[in-house]
Amino acid sequence: MRDVKAVAVRHDLSPEQIRELLDFFGESSKATSVADLLDAPFKPKPYLNPPNSFATLTRFSDGSWPIFYSALEQNTSGLEVFHHYRRYVGPEGRTHSLHYQAFACSFEGSTIDLRSAVAKWPDLIAEETNNATCQDIGREAHNAGVSALLCRSVRSPTGTTVPVFARASLSEVELGFVFRFTLADGGDFFLERVPTPS
After folding, report:
1. d(CA 106, CA 108)
2. Pairing of strands 96-107, 148-152
């Protein structure tokens, strides 16, 4: 909860946006059930992302359709999350941490494999995540009823990311470790596994 409130304060969110953020993460900053981990990206968040209902601009969504970002490999997922969490950890000059719940789930659905399409569409692995080419690909896949894409990871060259468009294709959540991302005074960034209570 403290992490969520810190993000809300730093980004000057309205009361409606804070409520939506707390609902997204759960009142205790943990999902109330493991299914919430899968459900949250597919729930509309109109106050957080006006005028779009589901998300801010991301690689494969302009925010008007839901998307669940995942990866085939745990290492790829960690590198992707590490990259994006850096924006939310806090200002340099003071130590601040965020927590991340790793989990695995099953997928069953249709896919389009774009891993070999980078030569045709280099934006698939461009550093800038908000780009029109990928959003057009995501829109076309979503509108065609494709469940997910298989893409090369930008952060892990041998890894595969899996942007999922269909909630019904996801099931069987298995919780993993909780990780702490810390930006220390001086700009050093640390990732550590939080010990599991015995």
Report:
1. 7
2. unpaired
Percent of the residues in the chain that have a pLDDT greater than 70, as a whole number: 72
For residue 106, the model assigns a pLDDT of: 96
Instruction: Find the range with the poorest average confidence among 26-30, 61-65, 165-169.
Output: 26-30
Closest residue by Cα to residue 166 from 154, 149, 153:
149
Pair of tokens at residue 59: 């690689």
At which residue do the structure tokens 């008007």 appear? Answer: 64
CB 48 within 8 A of CB 18: no
Exposed/middle/buried for residue 108 (C-beta within 10 Å: 0-12, 13-18, 19+)? exposed
Residue 61: name the closest of 122, 113, 127, 131 by CA. 131
Q: How far is CA 4 from CA 46, 81, 143, in A?
A: 18, 16, 32
Question: Taking Cα atoms as reference points, which of 130, 162, 129, 132 lies closest to residue 146?
Answer: 162
77/171 Cα distance (integer angstroms): 18
Query: Which stretch of DSSP H or E encloses residue 178?
Result: strand 170-183
Instruction: Say if residues 17 and 48 touch (Cβ distance below 8 Å).
Output: yes
pTM of the model: 0.78
Mean pLDDT of 115-142: 92
- Dihedral sign from CA coordinates of 30, 31, 33, 37: negative
Q: Which two tokens stand for residue 156?
A: 């892990």
More confident residue, 112 or 188: 112
